[in-house]
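Quick one, T. Sequence first:
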Amino acid sequence: MRVLRVLRLRHVGWAALLCGSSVLAQSADPLPLTPLPQSIVHGTGSITIGDGATIAVVRGDAGAEAAARVLTAHVKVERGLTLATREGDGTITLVRDASVQGDEAYRLVVNARGIRISASGDRGLLYGAMTVAQLLSPDRAFGKPVKVPAVTIEDAPRFGWRGLMLDPVRHFQPIESIYAVVDQMASVKLNTLHLHLTDDQGWRFEVKRYPKLTEVGGWRIPPSTGGAPGPKVGGFYTQEQLKALVVYAAERGITIVPEINLPGHAQALVAAYPELGVFGDQPEVSHDWGVNPYLFDPGSKGIAFVKEALDEVMAVFPGTYIHLGGDEAVKDQWERSPRVQAQIKALGLENENQLQSWMVDEFGKYLASKGRRLIGWDEILEGGLPPSASIMSWRGEKGAVEAANQNHDVVLTPAPTLYLDSLQSDRSDEPPGRLSIQTLADVYKYEPMPAGIDAEKAKHVLGAQGNAWSEYLATPYQVQHMIFPRAAAIAEITWSAKEKRDFPSFLTRIDPQIQRWRRSGVEVADSAFAVGFQLQGTRGEALRANRASVALSTQAPYGTIRYTLDGKVPTAKSPLYKAPLSLKPGVTIEAAAFDTAGNPTAQPRSFDTGRAALLTRTSSELVACPRGAFGLRVPLTSESPENTPAFNVNLFDTCSAYPAAPLDVAKSFSVDVARLARHYGLAHEAKALRSHFNVTTYGELVISARCIAAAGDKTIKPIVVASFPLPDPKTAPTRFSFSGTLPAMAGDEDLCFQFTSPLSDPFYAVERATLSEAAK
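C-alpha cells:
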C-alpha cells in the first residue's frame, strides 16, 4: 500500500504542474540525450536557462501549447526550474516549419539568443521539447540554472512503432501507475502503449452492454498454498477512466492500443457469460498462469458479442490498431465440440486453425469497415493470415519474416529479449520474474529489422515494443523495476539509426536519464551497474585454505569499482578495485561503481566472506537438479506486495541442488523450506511434469549427495543423506525448516533437495540451505 500511496501523490504533483557537422556517437563528450538523435552539429557559445525562462508559442497552436505544458512539467520535476509559457517572444520558441518533413521529425537550434524548436507536426514539437528537457537536466544538480551548449539537431525516428506493453490483467494495476509510465515513455520518445486488458485471470475493460464481464470477470480468488484461499482480488477500468488516459497519453505523443484477447485466454469471459463459451459450463475466473483450455464460441452468438464489445472499445480508443490476441489458443474445446466441428465443415475449412483464421478475418473486416486495423500475436498466421491483419511476432522472428514477406505489417517483440518480465540479473535482490535473464545490453543489441525480410518488404516492419507481462509483477514498483531503464534501450533501437548505435555512448547518456526518472518518482533497476561478486574456486577450497579470492564486476562497462573492507559505505575516494581480492574469511566486502564525476551508479552491494556465509546458499545460489532447469523466480504468495522472499523454481520437477558442498568441512545442515501455490495452466505441456512416488501421506523432502555426478555417470550411486515427511499443507505454516547430520565425506559433493509431494498438492522450494561446521 505504501508504494501505491507514493505513486498517487507523485501523480498529483505532475497533474498540478500540467494544469498551471559532427555526430554524437563520434563525440568525445556526448550530449546527455536518449535516444540518440540523427544528427548533432556543435556550435560556438551557449545559453543559460534559469528559473522563470519563457516558452513562446503561437496563439491558437494547440500542439505547441501541449508541448510547452509537457516541457514545463518535466523541467520542474527533473531540474527544479519553473518555466512560463506566453505568446510572442521567449527564450525557448516552438514554431511550425513545413520544411521539417514527418509528423515526428523536429529541428532544434541552440545559440546565445535562445532555443528554437521547429516541426511540422504536433509530435515533432513534443519530441523537440523532450530533447530540450534532457538538455536542461544534464547532470545531478537540481534547482540550478543550466548552461546549454550551442548545437543544431536534426532528428526523426527510424521506426513509427516504439512501444511498451502493460498487462494489468494478471495483477491489476491502479490507473495512476499507468499515468506514471506514460509520462516517462514520453521522456524517451516512445509512442505506443499496448494495454493487455483481458485474459483468463480478469476482464479489465468495462463493456456497458455486458456488465458481468467486470462484475464477475474482473475478480478472482487467489490460489491456495494449502489452507483457505484469501479474499477476491482484481478490479477494472471504467470507460471514463480510459478515455481520460487516452487524452493524457495523446498529449504526450502516445497512442494506446487496446487488446481484447480471443479466442483463447477467455476464461474470465466464460466465467461471466457461460453461454459465450463452447460447452456452457461456468468456470471460476482463473488464478492459474499459463495456458488454460477455455475458448469463446466461434458461432454467430460469439461473433456478435465480439463485434458489440469492439464497438465500445473503439469508442474509447481512437487509434488505428485494435489488438485481438490470438495467442496460445489450444483448440481442444473446439476439437471436442460437435457444433464447432459442424461449423468448420459448413464453412469449407479444414481444421481449427483455419477456423481461427476465418474468425480473425471476420473481425478484421469489421474493424476495417470502421476505419480500424486488426493486429494479433503471431499465432494468427497458423491458419493462413487474413489480408486485413498485422502481427506482433513474439515467438522469435519467424512470424515477422513470414508476414512481412506476405505484405503484412509487423511489430517485433520477440521473447525472451523484449519480454520485460525477464529478470535483469541473477542477483538475490531481484524481484520475481522469468529467469531468462535479459540485461540492458541484451535489449540494446537487439536489431528490430530481421535479416530474413526482403529489402523491398522492409517497409512492413512498423517497429518494436517491450512487453511487461505481470504474472509475477504484483505492484507498480515491480512493473517499473522491470521496465526502466530497459525502456531507454527500446527507445534507442527503434528511434536511432542502426549504424550510429553505440553501447558505451548509450551508457554515458542513460545515466542522466536514470536520474530524471528517479526524480519523477519512478523505480529504476540498477542491475546493469551494480557490483557483482564471484568467488574464485569452490567454497570448500576457500574454507580449507582459510582464504577467499573474490572477483568484482558490473554487467555494463561503465564506472570504476571502489570497495571497503571495514563495513563503511564506499565512496569515490575508497580503494579502487583492480584485481580479485584475496581475503581471510570473515571480512565483508562493500562495493559500488562510480562515474567520472564521483557519483555512484548503483546502490552498494556486499559480499560476506565469513565461514558461515560461505557454507550457506540461498534459493538464488542453488541450481536445478539434473534433467531440469529453473524457469521462474516466484513470490511466496501470488498476491505478495513484497519483492522478497522469492524462489527460483522448476515447475516441472521441484528439485534444487547445492553444488560442490564441502562435506569434509560441514558436519550438519539446516534447510528452510517454503510451500508455494501450484497454479499454472500447462495445457499440453503438463505431460512434462515429473511425478515422484510419495511414500508418506503428503510426500517427503529427500536429500541426497552425489546426485548431479550420478546423473552423468551411471557407475556413481547417489547417497541418501536424509528424508523428512512433509506436513499437512492444510494446517502447516507455509515456511518451516528441517535439520540433521551430514555423513563424513571427502571433499566437495553436490546435494540435491527433491520434493515428492503429489502433483495435486502445492509444491515446495528450498529458501535457504545452511551447512554448519558444528555437529548437531
